[in-house]
Amino acid sequence: MTGSLAYCIRIGALTVSNKATGNEHLLLNLDVRLGMDGVGGVCELLLGDPENVPPQIGDTLSVELNAGEGAKTVFTGIVDSVRMDITGQRVTAYDSLRKLASLETESSYENVDVDFVVKDQLQQAGVSIGRMAKGIKLVSYAIIKNPGALRQVLELADWCGADLYTDGAGKAHFTTPAEQGAEHLLEFGQNVLRLELQATPPIHDSVEVFGEGAAASQGADKFHWLAKDMAGVSGKAAIDAQGMVTAGRIGKCPRLLKLGAVRSGEAAQQVAEAQMRALAARWLRGRVEVYGMPKIFPGDHVKINSVPARHSVAKLLQGQHTLRVRQVRHFLSRNRGFLTCLEF
What we know:
It comes from Candidatus Methylumidiphilus alinenensis. By secondary structure, the chain is α+β, with helices and mostly antiparallel strands. The chain is 16% helix and 41% strand. The protein contains six helices and 23 strands. The two termini are 27 Å apart.
């Protein structure tokens, strides 16, 4: 481990750190993951000294890492399991998004934006709220017990082209690619250890969204009527070979999306454009491994400098597409030191 590295892990009343004093356990291995797509955050620890009193299930657990630029809290959660083996104690903790996965409730909403529904479900689950994208207007919407709150919030996220994820403090964020995160610079040949990158043009070059109801043709109070002409409650958008999104156009290989919760042409058009913008934001996919960078979180953007012009990845990085971080994974061990793996 490098001389500038510092760590502090608090588990209930216990402290595990790099300091010689006040350190109650020996850390052998740390693995912290934060990601999008509703997976939330996971922390796995391997502690030495098997004769020590182990952490308890239900203890709060927080992890601070410092690679020389100031301490950053990279995980906050609750201990879920503690396993004993020959070498020590294996501790697994999950962050607050798991509470949403356990929530089964029934709620109904009228004339609200998607963010209102998401906030309400997070509050019912006891999850702290971070940044929230507004989303589309919902004339009428219901949350049911089965299949659970998390899956239904993720469905709303898909309609809005948004992502649900947590940060190091355990706050839940619901944002689209338009909500820019922090930007971080990596230097090829200096702190970049591994790099995998590929362009992934979408299978469908466009989407056509159809909602329900006659609000567009008969007035807002007739949203529950069946419409004879669906043109007033539809929207379309396309993405070209360079990843540019165009509203109101259909390509050669469209995707058809029917959403009963969409009750206006405006909302249908918003969904169509959000779908295509989400695909454009993931035009470049892959992963990069660097020396430890605890300041990077999901939703942030990464730029890789100093790539040789003749390198095959240089052309991909010279285009208009950015690298938006979808998963951050921090490794800390006595064999490899402190590493961070980013996925796009």
